[in-house]
Design a protein that fits this description.
Blueprint (H helix, E strand, L loop, with lengths): L14 H4 L2 H5 L26 H14 L13 H10 L8 H9 L9 H14 L4 H9 L1 H6 L1 H4 L7 H8 L7 H14 L9 H11 L15 H16 L10 H13 L8 H6 L1 H7 L9 H8 L8 H16 L5 H13 L10 H4 L2 H13 L6 H16 L5 H6 L1 H7 L8 H10 L9 H12 L9 H14 L9 H8 L8 H14 L7 H15 L13 H12 L11 H14 L7 H14 L8 H8 L6 H16 L5 H6 L1 H12 L7 H8 L8 H14 L7 H14 L6 H17 L9 H14 L7 H14 L9 H8 L6 H16 L5 H6 L1 H7 L8 H7 L8 H16 L5 H6 L3 H5 L1 H6 L9 H11 L5 H16 L5 H14 L1 H5 L6 H8 L7 H14 L8 E3 L11 H7 L6 E3 L5
Helix pairs in contact: 3-7, 3-11, 4-6, 12-14, 13-18, 19-22, 21-26, 22-26, 25-29, 27-29, 30-31, 30-32, 31-32, 33-35, 37-38, 40-42, 41-42, 43-45, 53-54, 55-58
């Protein structure tokens, strides 16, 4: 109140003020009060005793009426008002002038009184409020109160300032009689704007400019006087909502208007316009609400949007609320409840702000909310008032002049007719979170309003959200205390779930869009991280205006520190990290909840992802087009993807989809405080478990595909191999290229028996994990996938990519592949045969058999071990079939049989160089080199190791014709014609070869005859024989070769002998 200076405080009209007032009104200043005609005589010394304050006021009133005659004049006895008084006022009021005055000035608007009576009342009040007798009465009735209130006790007596001071401090008056007296005086003064001290002088010009009414006495009746102030109030709030102030109200009049509103804040009777506008509504909604302390105002505010509320009352309430927005002291309850807290929190000591701003409701709320968020004590009464007014701001956008000023176009175009219950504000939020680029300050003003209202601290402040989400809160969040900030987090956790309803989803995302742009609007995050933010991001207080970085950038700073290692230092506290992770999980639900991402990627979202509107699709789309994005967007998406690789739980939608498989197979790593990529690794390893659903599988595979774009997107790989990459594979970024680079280095070191591996042990272990993961899906190996895309469409259109099924399909269709694809498949098989662990299908199908037969075998010898146990009775049939497939593949080319290649490394160039000279590097030799070695085997010219390997091949192919590629190539038609049943047998034990030998003379194709003759020639050499079948016995035609026969054939098996040709 001191803001207006002492002289401006005198809003009551004492005698000093009125000296110049008569001339302003066109009146002659009277030497004494106006004399009513023939007043009756009453001694001033005989006041009633039952109501001391009323008696004192009545005595003073009577004395003021006629100081030069006997006191006791009665308004009820005046001819001008007798008829009106008899008609309108109860009989028990007739003897009390103040009661009569109150009755007549509070009559209903449609009830007129005679002009002479109206004029009489005006003169009576005018003289009544100028008489020094009222000061003497005040000194008597308020003696102890004056002594308690320092400012009033120091006022100079006899000048009329004392009563004004008591009105100013009436909220602090505890003495009943004094309080009653001052209340009566206040009601008289506020019945007419012309009786308020100084108001006329300060606002005369503005009243005329705004055409708010006449200043002539008697021109308007008592009801219309409130309309003048109401007109000025509306002009004041309208001025704040307009950019061009055509008729600006003078500053001193602005202060006077707000001062009047402030002084009428405790009793709604004092706001004459609102009183008459809302009298019926008060009876309807607030009948049991006692007047005083602003209670009726608050009750009416709470019912403002009820259907039964009259438009006239609603408009008057809105005007008063707008005044409160401009000056919080216009709210009696808020100013009283928060007076000490404002002083304690030093909310009016910001020297950087203009004085007028300190009175704004938004500034008060921001300052006190800052104290609450920082854990400083703010009284419960004050917090309760703050809650009411924060809710008020959210319910009615028009109470924020900045919104009306800067959002007028959007409101008129998109949100008209939605002004009730916060719907307009949410409509504006929906527009604000759209993809438009705004040239106005529209989004900024919304952000400012939401910061003032702070709905993140209590969802109930947002009535539209509260109503839309009530059912969800009752079901999904019923375990959380009502009003707790965690309710919003709970709602976010259930976004896009079956418990969420559509209307709640929209309202929630609209609000979260703006909360996500200022880390301080999430009270839990702010509470847990304010210390970390100050330490690491150089922030200050909750509502400081001198931030070194914008609020949206603070969170980016926090999450950059959230995943630092101990070696990197400057990490977040544990509590803060938990909250940062919570926010990241929420942001993953909608790309628009990440301010930096939306800002940097708006163009790319429109260019590449305009059709990707389903949940989570936009970020996936940006990741898919990573190479195509502009650099700023690519950096943001890359950083977020890198972060996800360390903590995949950030991707809330994926985690939600994968819940069954996590619970069944990954619950141990999921429960860890620190993820470090373990959960995603577990999900990849269990991608084909029965608990895995399509959504989870697709999500995991997508993340694997994204990881291929940059080795940094695989956290464990990055941390294990970053030094090796920098040293051995510099300037390589794509993960697949890094893996190939490192794998090639490891392979070369191994083949060359290097004394020390160049790739570190830690990296080699993780490299193995990455290679195994890549072998599961051809799409994870772009070098293979890209050349084979057309072949996939042509040959394997309905085959799934996962479980290496697509790769297996291409292997089986190898002869029909395009040249480029065929070359890639051959290279893949060469790698897999050297390192069987990378053969995903083999390892999957034979997993149990490997555990049974090959636990002690080296990983690179697993296939060799399985081959040796292939005919065991304990061998699983599916695994046996898979082993046979791999044997068939190996026999097509010696390069696909690493054991043979090593054993015959000297024999092959020595005996088969002519074949090698014609060979293509990336295509099979169709068994030509192995056939060459078989011939040399017959001549006993091979080295011992090579001879052993050829013997094994001969034994295996003798039992299964499919293991002989030459036979397959040249005799497939003859087999189909002569040996159908034998070829169809599920178990191959040499039937087809025997069939061909028996039918040797029936074979028509010369190439097949030669191959078949070669079989006999190999078995009994060097003579030529026709073949006959001898079961379980030996018929020897050439005794010299008996030892060779025994060496070739297994015991107790069919022995084939070829007789000499004639």
């Amino acid at each position: 109140m001191a803001a207006y200076g002492r002289p401006q405080l005198l809003l009551l009209l004492p005698c000093v003020c009125l000296c110049g007032f008569g001339s302003v009104l066109g009146l002659k200043a009277p030497s004494g009060p106006a004399e009513p005609p023939n007043p009756p005589v009453l001694r001033a010394a005989d006041p009633p005793v039952k109501d001391a304050p009323a008696a004192a006021a009545a005595a003073a009133a009577a004395g003021a009426s006629q100081p030069r005659r006997a006191t006791g004049w009665k308004l009820s006895e005046e001819e001008a008002c007798r008829e009106d008084l008899t008609r309108l006022c109860p009989k028990h009021t007739w003897t009390n002038n103040l009661a009569v005055l109150e009755c007549l000035q509070d009559r209903r608007e449609e009830t007129d009184i005679a002009p002479d009576c109206n004029h009489l009342l005006w003169n009576y009040k005018l003289n009544l409020t100028t008489d020094p007798k009222f000061e003497s009465v005040a000194m008597e009735v308020c003696k102890s109160t004056i002594a308690e209130i320092k400012e009033c006790n120091e006022e100079e007596r006899g000048r009329g300032y004392l009563v004004s001071c008591l009105v100013d401090h009436r909220g602090n008056i505890s003495e009943y009689q004094c309080n009653q007296y001052i209340t009566k005086m206040t009601s008289i003064i506020f019945s007419d704007y012309r009786l308020i001290c100084g108001f006329m002088d300060k606002c005369k010009e503005d009243i005329n400019n705004m055409r708010c009414g006449s200043i002539n006495v008697g021109h308007k009746d008592v009801h219309s006087q409130g309309e003048v102030i109401a007109c000025l109030e509306k002009a004041l709030v309208r001025e704040a909502e307009q950019q061009d102030h055509v008729r600006p109200i003078k500053e001193e009049c602005q202060k006077a208007i707000l001062r009047v509103a402030e002084l009428s804040s405790d009793d709604f009777h004092l706001d004459r316009h609102l009183y008459f506008s809302c009298r019926d509504d008060r009876e309807r909604f607030c009948q049991n609400t006692q007047a005083g302390e602003g209670k009726v105002y608050k009750c009416l505010f709470n019912h403002k949007f009820e259907e039964a509320m009259s438009e006239k009352c609603r408009d008057a309430l809105t005007t008063r609320q707008k005044l409160i927005s401009q000056d919080y002291k216009v709210s009696y309850s808020l100013a009283k409840a928060c007076k000490l807290d404002l002083r304690k929190q030093r909310c009016s000591l910001d020297t950087n702000l203009p004085r007028a701003r300190e009175a704004r409701l938004s500034y008060l709320l921001l300052c006190l909310e800052a104290a609450v968020h920082r854990g400083r004590p703010v009284s419960g009464e004050c917090q309760g008032e703050m809650l009411d007014y924060r809710r008020m701001l959210m319910e009615d956008f028009s109470l924020s002049p900045e919104i009306v000023l800067h959002c007028r176009t959007e409101i008129e175009a998109h949100c008209s007719g939605l002004h009730r219950k916060g719907r307009t504000l949410h409509c504006l939020m929906r527009i604000g979170r759209g993809d438009r680029i705004f040239l106005t300050m529209f989004p900024l003003q919304l952000q400012t309003l939401i910061q003032s209202a702070d709905p993140g601290a209590d969802y109930r402040i947002d009535r539209a959200l509260n109503e839309a989400c009530e059912s969800v809160i009752q079901t999904a969040c019923k375990h959380i205390r009502t009003g707790d900030p965690m309710i919003l987090s709970c709602l976010m956790e259930h976004l896009y779930t079956e418990k969420m309803v559509e209307d709640c989803e929209h309202r929630l995302l609209e609000l979260q869009y703006f909360i996500s742009r200022d880390w301080k609007l999430d009270p839990i995050l702010y509470k847990k991280c304010q210390g970390d933010a100050a330490r690491l991001c150089h922030t200050h207080g909750w509502n400081e205006t001198s931030e070194l970085m914008p609020p949206g950038a603070v969170f980016s700073c926090l999450y950059r520190h959230a995943y630092r290692t101990e070696e990197q230092g400057r990490r977040l506290s544990r509590d803060c990290k938990v909250e940062v992770q919570r926010i990241l999980h929420q942001r993953a639900l909608d790309v628009k909840l990440d301010p930096e991402l939306q800002k940097r990627c708006m163009t790319d979202l429109g260019k590449w992802c305009s059709e990707k509107t389903d949940t989570g699709q936009e970020l996936e789309c940006l990741q898919d087009h990573l190479e195509d994005l502009v650099s700023a967007c690519r950096d943001v998406v890359g950083n977020l993807t890198e972060l996800e690789s360390e903590d995949i739980q950030i991707d809330a939608l994926l985690i939600r989809a994968c819940e069954p498989v996590i619970q069944a197979h990954c619950h141990d790593v999921a429960d860890n405080q620190i993820d470090t990529g373990d959960l995603m690794e577990c999900l990849v390893q269990n991608k084909h478990q029965k608990e895995m659903n399509d959504k989870c599988s697709v999500g995991v595979t997508h993340f694997q595909l994204v990881q291929m774009k940059d080795f940094r997107f695989s956290y464990k790989f990055k941390m294990s191999c970053k030094e090796d990459v920098l040293r051995l594979c510099p300037n390589i970024k794509k993960k697949v290229d890094v893996v190939i680079c490192l794998s090639t280095t490891v392979r070369n070191d191994t083949l060359q028996d290097a004394r020390e591996q160049r790739v570190s042990l830690k990296c080699r272990k993780q490299l193995r994990v990455e290679e195994l993961e890549m072998s599961e899906d051809i799409r994870l190996e772009p070098e293979l996938y890209d050349p084979c895309k057309s072949d996939i469409s042509r040959l394997c259109p309905n085959v799934n990519f996962g479980n290496a099924q697509m790769i297996e399909c291409l292997k089986e269709q190898k002869k029909q592949l395009s040249q480029r694809c065929h070359q890639r498949i051959f290279r893949l098989q060469e790698v897999e045969m050297t390192d069987p662990e990378l053969d995903y299908q083999l390892m999957r199908v034979c997993k149990q058999m490997i555990k049974r037969f090959c636990t002690e075998a080296d990983a690179r010898n697993v296939l060799q071990c399985l081959k040796q146990n292939k005919n065991s009775e304990l061998m699983d049939p599916k695994c046996k079939q898979m082993i046979t497939k791999r044997q068939i593949t190996q026999n097509t080319d010696y390069r696909l049989n690493p054991v043979l290649r090593k054993a015959c490394r000297a024999d092959i160039p020595k005996f088969c160089q002519s074949i090698l000279n014609k060979a293509n590097e990336d295509s099979e030799l169709e068994g030509q080199v192995i056939a060459c070695l078989k011939l040399k085997y017959a001549d006993q010219r091979l080295s011992p190791d090579c001879e052993d390997q050829i013997r094994v091949i001969l034994q295996e192919s003798a039992l299964d014709y499919r293991l002989d590629p030459q036979l397959q190539m040249h005799c497939s038609d003859e087999i189909s014609r002569l040996c159908v049943e034998e070829a169809a047998a599920q178990e191959q034990t040499g039937q087809v070869e025997e069939c061909l030998k028996v039918n040797l003379l029936k074979i028509k194709q010369e190439a097949c005859k030669k191959v078949n003759m070669l079989l006999c020639y190999v078995i009994i050499l060097p003579v030529q024989f026709f073949c006959i079948i001898v079961a379980k016995s030996i018929v020897v035609y050439d005794i010299i070769k008996i030892n060779k026969i025994k060496r070739l054939l297994p015991a107790n098996n069919v022995l084939l002998i070829c007789p000499r040709q004639k």
